[in-house]
Amino acid sequence: MNTNRFNVFNQIHKGLRALLFDTVMQIQQTDMSNAEAAAPVLEQTELLLHLFDSHAYHEDTCILSAAEQHSPQVIKDFESEHETDLALSNSLRQKVTDYRLGQSDAARYVAGYNLYYALNDFVAFNLKHMNKEEQLLNTILWTNYTDAEILGMEHQIQQQIEPEKMLTYFKWMIKGINNTELIIWLNAVKAHAPDFVFNALLETCQQNLPQDRWAVVEQQISEGAAI
Q: Cα 98 from chain centroid?
């Protein structure tokens, strides 16, 4: 991994991993025979599926299409993996539907475990897939594009995401990255984005960071820290 180059996947993948891990912990700690208790798990699983579907689409159109010009066979393999991911997504989505159709505690208990195992399959595949993207696909991008060009691909993706969904991505990226990465991000947004975007990001940080982390980040931003 070349740490001196821009990693277009780092921030979004850390956010998506945070969402995956949080969802698994949530279902492991929930009595899935209880429909009321299970409702937040179902809602977050559906959110997870929605964000991963959107992420895969934007990767295909803005990242893989650029890399394909230089390594078509490698990109063909990634596209095949996205098809596998779609099948796992559909299976997990069906397990959510099956759970909602459960008419008894016993039926919901079984459906909850089926959902749990489908979620684990989805998580295991996507963790490996994201690692492969960061290790292999980044190498292709770095060999053939400048950091400025890769950053342009990221901006192209951001322009296609509606504001409400972007705030949801922000929430999980904030939860998933470290303080240094977060401060660099906040400084960049402060320098280049409208004030309302920066203020919305700060508010999302305050809402989603533990108080001790937020205090450190807020202090460094207010002091104009440039990392």
A: 25
Q: Which residue has the tokens 């850390």?
A: 14
* Average pLDDT of span 144-148: 96
CA distance 3 to 6: 8
Please return the burial class of 141, using the count of CB atoms within 10 Å of its CB with bins 0-12, 13-18 and 19+.
buried
Domain boundaries, the chain: 10-162, 178-227
Cα angle, residue 66 at apex, residues 58 and 1 outer, rounded to 5°: 90
| Tokens representing residue 69 in the block | 């010009």
Is 60 exceeded by the pLDDT of residue 3? Answer: yes
CA distance 91 to 181: 34
What's the whole-model pTM score? 0.93
pLDDT at 227: 42
Domain 10-162 annotated CATH 1.20.120.520: yes
* Lowest mean per-residue pLDDT among 25-34, 156-165, 217-226: 217-226
